[in-house]
Amino acid sequence: MIQLQKTTPLDTKYLESLGFVWHTDSDETSYIADELVVISEAEAEAYYEAANTLYDMFVAASEYVVQNNLFHEIGIPFNIIDIIKESWENDVHWHLYGRFDLAGGIDSKPIKLLEFNADTPTALFETAIVQWAILKQNHLEEESQFNALYEALVNNFKRLVTLEEDVSTFKTLYDGWNFLFTSIRGNSEEENTVRLLQHIANEAGYNTEFAYIDDIEFDSKEGIFYNNTNYELWFKLIPWEDIALEESDLAMLLSNIIKNQKAIIFNPAYTLLFQSKGLLKILWDLYPKHPLLLESSFEPLKAQKQVEKPVFGREGGSVTIIDENNQKVSSVDGDYDNHKMVYQAYTELPTDDDGLSYQAGIFYAYEACGLGFRKGEKILSNMSKFVGHVVK
């Protein structure tokens, strides 16, 4: 059984002072759990090693997709393939961060990859800031976490210039590039997460500005503008698949902007390869029976419990658990039914005394750098809770 340590909850006013305003779910319960998952140093190290190994595997699998033109097979929209290739082949398109969702790793259960959220930063604020604040509030050692996400992001922002591990040369190479950070209007969670990333970029030494997406001008030949200023670096929170499927004009503009080398966009377009759950099938083809992987296919698996999920989807939407007799066990409605489906062998998540499941999320920013957990039902949804951790 999972080991938990009760904590005193953070005051909502204090959370809001940090900029964390999405602290209460729609049913009026706290989104942040009043407990910590207790893990050992060996378990923390295993998570670290697993995420680093998986990232290298994702890079190799993505290269395989590019070289063999398998974009359609993993569900990549056709109108964004050129921009993916362009960003993949040029080192200046640096991957800032992603989050591996993993089963196991605690309670003597083996670590297994569920998926890689490589583009949008869900749970970044919670992992980097909130769980650190929980330790501080409860008079626990603030260093007693696998959590260097904030510092890792500072250094990775610097690598956008150095393009190498060593960031000590950043100050001499940096030439005052303008960096624009963007979210949609009216979503406080997304906006404040973007503003946190903007703050981290400021700390790394950039000149930054924030703008809502509808206030930005895009010119295929000249680049990205806000208030008559040209921005060479642009961070957007809009998922690449949404740009491709719902904003085709913007997809074309951004393709031309990148081809004309007028701006660098974060996260890069090639993160859509990582983001596609279709890559789980490619990984299984390239690394069959790898201990970190679950069998995955575009066809239903024979005579075994499995999960059917769309190649692009969020918060458990359109996900179904199917038993060995091809009967539906559990499902979550969603808006992703029209996407191609992937079938992944089922694995149990660690559970608590109430039967609730715990899924580990490992952030990766040049290396594995931060752990947090989500707690919920068998299929984690937008009503799942964030749970911090402590290493003992």
Low-pLDDT windows of residues: none
Number of domains: 2
* DSSP strand count: 19
Q: How many distinct helices?
A: 11
Strand order within the widest beta sheet: 1-2-19-18-17-3-4
The global form is globular
The end-to-end distance, rounded to whole angstroms, is 17 Å
Give average pLDDT, whole number: 93
Instruction: List the secondary-structure elements in sequence, H or E.
Output: EHEHHEEHHHEHEEEEEHHEHHEEEEEEEE
Strand content: 15-25%
Helix content: 25-40%
Provide the gyration radius in Å. Answer: 21 Å
Largest β sheet strand count, sense and barrel closure:
7 strands, mixed
Backbone structural class: alpha+beta
Written account of the structure:
By secondary structure, the chain is of the alpha+beta class. It has two domains: 4-275 and 352-391, no CATH class; 297-345, no CATH class. It is built from eleven helices and 19 strands. It has helices at 12-17, 41-67, 81-88, 124-137, 149-162, 170-173, 188-204, 240-246, 248-259, 271-275, 278-286, and strands at residues 4-6, 32-39, 98-103, 112-117, 178-183, 207-212, 217-219, 223-226, 229-231, 233-236, 264-266, 296-297, 306-310, 319-322, 328-332, 341-345, 357-364, 368-376, 385-391. The strands form four sheets. A seven-stranded mixed beta sheet has the order 1-2-19-18-17-3-4, with helices on both faces. It has a five-stranded antiparallel beta sheet with strand order 12-16-13-14-15, covered by helices on one side. Helix 2 (41-67) packs across helix 11, helix 3 (81-88) packs parallel to helix 9 and helix 5 (149-162) crosses helix 7 (188-204). The chain is globular, with a radius of gyration of 21 Å. The two termini are 17 Å apart. The mean pLDDT is 93.
